[in-house]
Amino acid sequence: MRTELDAYLEHLRRERQVSPHTLDGYRRDLLKVLALAEGAGVSEWAALDAHHLRHFVARLHERGQSSPSLARLLSATRGLYRYLIREKRCQQDPAAGLSPPKGARRLPRTLDADRAQQLLDGAVEDDFIARRDQALLELFYSSGLRLSELVGLDLESLDLGDGLVRVHGKGGKVRELPVGRKAREALHAWLPLRALAAKDTALFIGRQGRRLGPRAVQLRVRQAGVRELGQHLHPHMLRHSFASHLLESSQDLRAVQELLGHADIATTQVYTHLDFQHLAKVYDSAHPRARRRTEDNE
User: Among the options 54, 170, 173, 215, which is catalytic?
Assistant: First the structure.
């Protein structure tokens, strides 16, 4: 079994040319399956069946493995069996049709409106780094951008006259998004400083004039969170906050879907749960009967 597994991994490396990171992930997942199979007395891949795999997944879930991790493991197993079937070493895929247990739904973390204002309304030094960081924070929150979308922006992506930014989202889909007044002001303050250093078409650059990468942006956002809020902050939290606050005010789920660039409205519906949490907190803090119930429980 190990020989055939190694041959498949070599196939991924040489013929499929997957990245080292992806290859390591496949190796880790498939070695888990191999160890469980050998522990169950299975000595060849052709002898592994759906019952075995279902039992393995259940055991890993009991040990605390998350639903997404188990989904990835099953996907890796299906890839292995596609290879084995093509090489005529197996006749069927025992992972076909199997799905991992559903995990608890995790709601995205957000800043409330007051915390978002606290983050963005502090004093800003009139220098290259401070003006750039303020502009990218404002744009993240103003337009609900993904990290990859923000770092991919070029100067020509921006139309401050009309208050629009053109972004390339997942699957190469292009969408135009509004840029709020505060974000436009921050960008107007940043662009003259950018022009003095630019050696790149990128909207956001470092001191050397080159495009900022994702890790650099994550670092600057994290530092702003610690400095202004005393908490961990990441770019996606600003995107989540944008969506939650917009939905809370507008109640227009379809519009929020379009602005976020979600292909499926079910992805956007998670923010309706966040909105309900907000309403529940307001109810518990303001409704006389809710307050009385809390007091009775004390």
Answer: 170
What is the Cα–Cα distance from 191 to 203, expressed in whole angstroms? 8
Annotated active-site residue 271? The verdict is yes
User: Does the active-site annotation cover 146?
Assistant: yes
Secondary structure E strands in the chain: 158-159, 164-168, 174-178
List 8, 26, 141, 271, catalytic entry: 271
**Structural contact between residues 58 and 100, judged by C-beta atoms closer than 8 angstroms:** no
Domain boundaries, the chain: 2-86, 113-282
pLDDT digits (tens, 9 = 90+) for 257-297: 888 888 777 777 777 666 656 656 666 666 555 554 444 44
Distance from C-alpha of 177 to C-alpha of 233, rounded to nearest angstrom: 23
The question of whether 262 is a catalytic residue gets the answer yes
Catalytic pick among 78, 82, 236, 278? 236
Catalytic residue list contains 239: yes
Of residues 194, 239, 240, 245, which has the active-site annotation? 239
CATH architecture of 113-282: Orthogonal Bundle (1.10)
173 an active-site residue?
Answer: no
Tokens 């208050």 locate to 163
> What does the pLDDT look like over 162-221, one tens digit per residue?
999 999 888 788 898 999 999 999 999 999 999 999 999 999 999 999 999 999 999 999
Fold for the domain defined by 2-86: DNA polymerase; domain 1 (1.10.150)
Q: Which of these is catalytic: 13, 72, 115, 146?
A: 146
pTM, entire model: 0.59
